[in-house]
TrEMBL record:
Keywords noted in UniProt: Receptor, Signal
Family under the similarity heading: Belongs to the UPF0065 (bug) family.
Gene3D superfamilies the record matches: Bordetella uptake gene, domain 1, Periplasmic binding protein-like II
Entry protein name: Tripartite-type tricarboxylate transporter receptor subunit TctC
Source species of the chain: Variovorax boronicumulans
Signal in keyword set: yes
PANTHER family documented for this protein: BLR1237 PROTEIN (PTHR42928:SF5), TRICARBOXYLATE-BINDING PROTEIN (PTHR42928)
Amino acid sequence: MSTTRRLVLASALAASALTALPVLAEGTYPTKTVSVVVSYPPGGDTDAIARLFADKLGQRLKQSVIVDNKPGAGGAIGNGFVGRAAPDGYTLLFTPNPFTTAPLVMKLSGGAAYDVLGGYEAVINTASQPLVLVANPAVGVKTLPELVAAAKAGKTVSYASPGAGSPMHIVGEWLNKAAGVKFSHVPYRGVGPSVTDVVAGHVDTAWVTFGAVRQYLQAGKLIPLAIGDAQRSKLAPNVPTLVELGYKDVVVGAWNGFFAPKGTPAPVVKLLNEHLNAILKEPEVVEKLAVFGALPAGGAPAALAQLNQREYAVMGKAIRELGISAE
């Protein structure tokens, strides 16, 4: 072999080795602490579920996995932070579905701005959380048709949500339009305060997740009227859906999942997805998710990507038609 040919071959091998370096590095992932960003304060459902997954993931990766709370701007601050982070698998986002709708209802700029569809790698849809409409018994109704009839007869009805632009706000306004009523929206800063006030009777009804009201439903302090999902929930099989009650197009649920910055290596995403799918099958995890009114989801990264895209289109259309804004 000539000297020239040896040099060309050596150069080609060197270039090939450089190209393969990320793959080799990924084979040892993770070699340091992994941060899971939660775009909400500590103490809520999202934070608690994130800590459950972080603990389990750390055990499987044999590396520290910590939760880093970055609240603000309806979750947009933390979302934007992850979107700008290094795509190396060491910064992940655990988020509920306001991740998808926030840019549709808020004017985001600077550190709060982010690209819902093009700025992240989907990792896994971890769970779904059916939305339920509950009423204080003092309202005097036991079913949604009774509530709608009372409103049409002149009764003033209010509903709470954990914030303007939230899935609970969207389903509330969508129901208003479909039923031809005007339940007054009362936005709160989170699910907790909205539940407190509907139990106390300061607001008539509320759209919430099951975990937040389970104890009050069992004690008879709140009455479940309808589910926002297309099908009845295993968590409350006797509660009818809005679809069953005649509002066939009104389908809104809650979900959560993991995202990584765009460009995170595919082998890293695959590894995280495999571990989290295994975690979702653990009986302890299934049991703890149920406490928060959540049902395990799982699946390939593509399933979350498709869910995100579909919700962006469907909820975007509803938000525009209903004139929903977080301002």
